[in-house]
Amino acid sequence: MRRSVLIRFLGLSLAVALGAVIATAVIATYSTTEKLQGEIDANTGQLQVDGEIYGQLSKYAADHPTWSGVDKLVHELAGKLGRRVAVLAEDGSVIADSARKLGAAPDLPSVPAATIDVRNSGGAKLAGISSVMNVYTARKTIAADGAGGFVTTATAIPPFIGAPDWGLTEEEKQKQAELAQQVADCYTAKGRPASLAQTGEAVPQVMVESTQSLAGARVLEKPGLDAKDDACYSPGLYAPSAKAKIVNDDEIRRATACLDAARINYQIINNVGGLKSLEPKNKADFTDKFVDCSTQARSQALTPYVAPPAKLYLGAKSTFNVFSGEGLLRTAATALGVLLIAALVMFFAGRRLVRPIVALTGATQRMRNGDHAARVPVSGKDEVARLGHAFNDMAESIQRHDFQRKAMVSDVAHELRTPLANIKGYLVASEDGVVPLDQTLVTSLLEETGLLEHLVADLQDLALADAGMLRLHPASRDLSELVEQVVSAHGPAADTAGITLTAAIAGPSLAVVDGARIRQALGNLVSNAIRYTPTGGHVVVGVRPVESGGKAGYNLTVTDNGAGIAPEHLPHLFDRFYRADVSRTRTTGGSGLGLAITKHLTEAHQGHVTVTSSPDAGSTFTIWLPA
Questions:
Q1: Predicted pLDDT at 232
Q2: How far is Cα 405 from Cα 80, in angstroms, rounded to an integer?
Q3: Of 565, 503, 504, which is closest to residue 532 (Cα–Cα)?
Q4: Partner of 471 at 20 to 30 A CA spacing, among 35, 462, 465, 484?
Q5: Cβ atoms within 10 Å, residue 589
Q6: By C-alpha distance, which of 17, 308, 268, 261 is closest to 127?
Q7: DSSP-derived secondary structure for 512-543
Q8: How far is it, in rounded angstroms, from Cα 77 to Cα 98?
Q9: Is-above-0.70 flag for pTM?
Q10: Which residues form the Histidine kinase domain (predicted)?
């Protein structure tokens, strides 16, 4: 982590995130445990109580087309069971709320305990319509549990629409009660005592003594559908109400219309608990579309007869809501603690990270004000440390170039001052009549003017190279030819200095170059070699094919057997106005810019120039150019 700012920031972020997760877990665990334990201790049968509330309200919704009048039931359940009960419409408006009766706080829990929707819930399914699985399940229940014509479990038609008492008018209830009494009397007359029993339904149910009673115990059972062959059994005993038949017929009509439009094969089964049902003819017809048609038909058929969906809220406040009441204070305190820890961590870590950046900013401002010696202390190996090293390198380069610029200006002034002073001196002396203006004086003045012209031309070439405006005119040229031209041009100067100048050519060496510029670069090297080689020495200019960096090219070499160059001077030979021997003066004819110009010209041709030398062993300058 000490090597990367990115990793440090990632570690800090993960640490803060971990703290937040731990704090959240503590809040959730504490609040959940506290509230659940309180509710469990207060009422261990809370689930049964809530189930009874849900069942009573669902029955109310099934028996009434609206929720109007449910207030009485809500307050009765709240007073009886000691729970706050609130029923809200889907749009959030309050239908009924027992809060005032219990003196509970007006805020509701964050989420409802249940949604009462008898049109689409399991309690609102018509027998056999919701899915074919319900039909098969109902039939299996009848076959398995019907024994001797009696069903000892619940009715095989589970939905409330199929219940014997749903939707009965007062007149239908009276007729059902009379019929039940007749059936009970019939069983009693045949030696099987029967009686009427209130089972929570609107009509008393017939209970007959079982034929399978054990150990003399009297067991009463409700006659099932398998008892229809019994002489006492009456088909109207479990007949649904007229209202249930209307809903059933409407549902069947809607479902068949939907299935016909979807081209799904089906069959209508009659007399399933006195009602009709649908099932697919084949297993392949039992699709999601079959279920959708059945569900939509049931919901649409029930809509005019049952209450619309509503949300049921139980209890004074949500057990898991940590953003209300006491939980909000605890959450806020924990959040502040996490933020405080994160702020402290980021503060100390940020100071460590910002310190070198502030130092960099200060050093940059000092450099802007002219202090090129400004540097920053660097420690570590991370990104900020690398930035500090890069800044120091940049400052070192700027300082070095600034020093070179100043030295160059001084050198240029010196180089210009000497010939100008000579020219002015000779002209003043001639004007005063001290020196006659003869051919010798004119020749000397022309030599001084030539030196000035040569220096100005070299400065112009360097300025163009620095500005990236050095123009080249490349063409296919034979480098061997160029070498011969350079040797021929510098032959007189070599003869005057008593030096042997030769060319070492192996054969044609074709390359695409600017011939004039290559002669200029090579001529500068030859001039230097002649200038620094003692009398009697020799200079060899050669060309040979080589490869550099996997690329084919040619080496143009200038080798002399002069005094050589000390190793400490080699890295600076191509700097402007740099001379290995400061005792050598301008009288040798050099401007101090030749090697710098050669370097720029070579690089403009995508090549490079190097030098190898050792004291008293001569020097070799090499220009590599791509073929």
A1: 80
A2: 101
A3: 565
A4: 484
A5: 14
A6: 268
A7: EE-HHHHHHHHHHHHHHHHHTS-TT-EEEEEE
A8: 9
A9: no
A10: 411-627
